[in-house]
Amino acid sequence: MTSSLAFTSVGNRFAEASALIAQSWVENKDQTLDYNPDFLQSSYEYPGTDPELSPALYEGGELRAFVSGFPRRVVLQGRELKLLLLTFFTVAPDLKGKGVGTRIWAECLSRAREAGYDGAIHYCVDGNKSNHVTVRAAQTIGLESRRVFTVQYLMRLLRPGGAKKPAIDSEAGLHATFAQLSRQLSATLPFARLWDEAEIAWECTRRYGAMHALNDGQGLLTGYILENSGPSKLSVLFIEHILWDGLDEAPRAELLTELLDNAGSAEVAVVPLWGYSDMGIFRKARFRLSTRMLHAYLTLWNGMAFPDLLTPMYIDVF
Fold first, then answer.
1. Assigned superfamily of 154-290
2. What's the pTM value of the predicted model, to 2 decimals?
3. pLDDT digits (tens, 9 = 90+) for 226-269
4. 146 has which bridge partners?
5. Contact predicate 294/125, CB 8 Å
6. What is the DSSP letter of 205?
């Protein structure tokens, strides 16, 4: 009975959360990722994460539904905002279609508003029912969620093998380069992510499967490696941040080659198209357009006006 469900938070029950994701998301038409307990724990170690902003529903002590919330700071048309990134939206299969997803999504938004956030951002796979559920959930508490961008992807098959030994970069130099280049990029865009030192350290060196390639302080690519959840267990390199506007074509190509060479056992490389960087080097490196698309939604409150469809954007897909 859904009436017996009680709100709490996910806490540190990462094994249960991972198992519920695997059970619930198996019906998705697109092959999903293996959000294993270590990956989830790493996600919750992101600086400033408040577990109370990840509401969960339990029944008889069993995790039945949850959504995770992680802080993001952005600048939107010149105004700095604190957004909650909502992700890992999961409902037990036997509770789907019973309003549970709407309840828990609305609860997460309510907690974010009460905690002083300016709004929220989330992503839904094109064609997935979650597009309608999340928008409707916001409406139940008097909020509006509006699609502001559609993310497409480039992908390429890789030849897995022993990773080349990467150059040893000092963490201080790596983090300083990320800070400088991301700050320069953010100053030019209508919507861009902002960073502090702790967030940069997590992104570059602390997160699960973190990877990077650095070019003498002038260019930087970062990403992470994670397996998918299919029977083949393909290892996927996700390229997250493309910070190389100060480089010419040749050093850009060298930087991408270095990242791919260091990917080790990865069999697929994927990069989202946010429109903030020239992707010609990726296309020359045999990356091709994928059929996968994600819709990005903003939920804003406190009388803030929605932007028109954004292009480009600089933030992460999570």
1. Gcn5-related N-acetyltransferase (GNAT) (3.40.630.30)
2. 0.93
3. 987 666 678 999 999 999 998 999 999 999 999 999 998 899 99
4. 298
5. yes
6. I
